[in-house]
Amino acid sequence: MKKILATLFAVTALTVGGATAASATPPDPGTDSGCCPCYCAPYSAGDNTAWAAGTKYVNKGNWGTYTRTSFESNPTIWAGRNNAAGVVIFHWVDSENLTIEIALAPGAKFADGDAVKIQPYAFGDPRLMQTPVPGHFELKYDPTDPSHFEVTVPLAYLYGIHLDITNS
């Protein structure tokens, strides 16, 4: 019981103690940097798979992550596990939809083909405890802009956001 209460307290503290919408600095796709100042180190890690920061699907093996929908913070996009490659920004549309914006860091580009794969999840979805298969994600997109992408999707509590990126 103590562990359950401690976990609930930690989740509540993280949720309530996060950044405010006023303090979050979203990327400005209209600038040369294409991302907020905290992620402007040029990306140079080559061809990589990338995930929006979040919770690992499984503890061993695959490093894929899913992220909680948040309008107060912008999850980092991690390429090859430890190379910051941009940010994800969630924009409220209405009670059934939201827009996911992906802004890559300078030097990072989407790979050719279906480089953006998104899987919406409900809270408690059993697929969250399995190794993900990005090729089987429900939503797949071939971005036309090399470093910026936006799409309106059905509103969900969690999303797996998997990208194929390059710097060539």
Based on the model shown, name its key terms.
disordered N terminus, 168 residues, 37% strand, mainly beta
Structure, described:
The protein is mainly β and 168 residues long. It has one domain. Helix content is 9%, strand content 37%. The chain has one helix and eleven strands. Strands 1, 2, 3, 4, 5, 6, 7, 8, 9, 10 and 11 form an eleven-stranded antiparallel β-sheet that branches. A hairpin with a 3-residue loop joins strand 4 (76-79) and strand 5. The relative contact order is 0.23. Residues 1-38 have low confidence and may be disordered.
Short summary of the structure?
By secondary structure, the chain is mainly beta. It has one helix at 2-16, and strands at residues 48-52, 55-56, 65-68, 76-79, 83-94, 97-104, 109-110, 116-121, 139-141, 148-154, 158-166.
The tally of domains stands at 1
Task: Tell me the number of helical segments per DSSP (H or I, 4 or more residues long).
Answer: 1
- Choose one word for the global shape: globular
The percent range for helix content is under 10%
Largest sheet, strands/sense/barrel: 11 strands, antiparallel
- What is the straight-line distance between the termini? 52 Å
- Assembly type of the chains comes to single chain
SSE arrangement, N to C: HEEEEEEEEEEE
Task: Produce the secondary structure layout.
Elements: H1 2-16, E1 48-52, E2 55-56, E3 65-68, E4 76-79, E5 83-94, E6 97-104, E7 109-110, E8 116-121, E9 139-141, E10 148-154, E11 158-166
Antiparallel strand pairs: 1-4, 1-11, 2-3, 3-11, 4-5, 5-6, 6-10, 7-11, 8-9, 8-11
